[in-house]
Amino acid sequence: MLENFPFYLGLLIVILLLIMLANKIKVAYPILLVLAGLVISFIPGVPLIKIDPELIFFIFLPPLLYEAAWTVSWKEMWRWRRIITSFAFVVVFLSALSVALVANYFIPGFSMALGFVLGGIVSPPDAVSAGAILKFVKVPKTLSSILEGESLLNDASSLIIFRFAMIAVATEQFIFSKAATTFSWMIIGGVSIGLFIGWLFMKAHKYLPTDANSDIVLSLLTPYIIYLAAEEVYCSGVLAVVSGGLLLSNNRHRFLNSKPAFAV
């Protein structure tokens, strides 16, 4: 770990320079990061980095989704909620189903359950990339709001599909009634937990004697606590983080700019 520390620092510097370059040439920074990652992987002698996949989800996913939720307009999401939810759930499911059917037909020994595993992985677009790309593309505000809102929610639907498909692969059976109950709990429970913990942090920001540094720390902790709490009770951590982020974003002017006065 320590012997590769200079390499990690170098990667951070490269990432910062690429983001600056992307802003300068007006290109979405995820595109440059992907291309640079491909180039670096072919350099001889580059250290092999191994990270637990579970850590990837927990370390990177909550803050990325939380930041994306803060940049999306809640009013626009609510206005186009029907289109957004249909794209985020129905379209993602149909995409996963299409991948499963094609893989099952063309790849020998590839079952439908394995096809849904693959479909759950490849069906949703990335929320952060969508937001970054839309900054440099002139599209109508309606289309932008729909794409950004849909990209926030489709990760949850794809992860749910992936989880059910993995269970079907491991047990070689699929019980529809149990799956429907679990699916409902993951969605309703995830949204409820996200809103509740988001409300708690909103009150903490507003009524505790915090300063700018404390608010930053609380903001950094919020997505991780929401995600972990939801996953501990087998809900959708993605929906929880998005729900909590939207709640705090929509009410940020109420609690970040209205601190109570405390006597010294």
TrEMBL record:
InterPro entries: Cation/H_exchanger_CPA1, Cation/H_exchanger_TM. The chain crosses the membrane at residues 6-22, 29-49, 55-74, 86-107, 156-176, 183-204, 224-248. Residues 14-254 form the Cation/H+ exchanger transmembrane domain. The keyword Iron does not apply. The keyword DNA-binding does not apply. Pfam families: Na_H_Exchanger (PF00999). Its main location: membrane. Keywords: Cell membrane, Ion transport, Membrane, Sodium, Sodium transport, Transmembrane, Transmembrane helix, Transport. It is found in: Cell membrane. It is a multi-pass membrane protein. PANTHER family: SODIUM/HYDROGEN EXCHANGER (PTHR10110), SODIUM_HYDROGEN EXCHANGER 7 (PTHR10110:SF86). This is Cation/H+ exchanger transmembrane domain-containing protein. It comes from Flavobacterium limi.
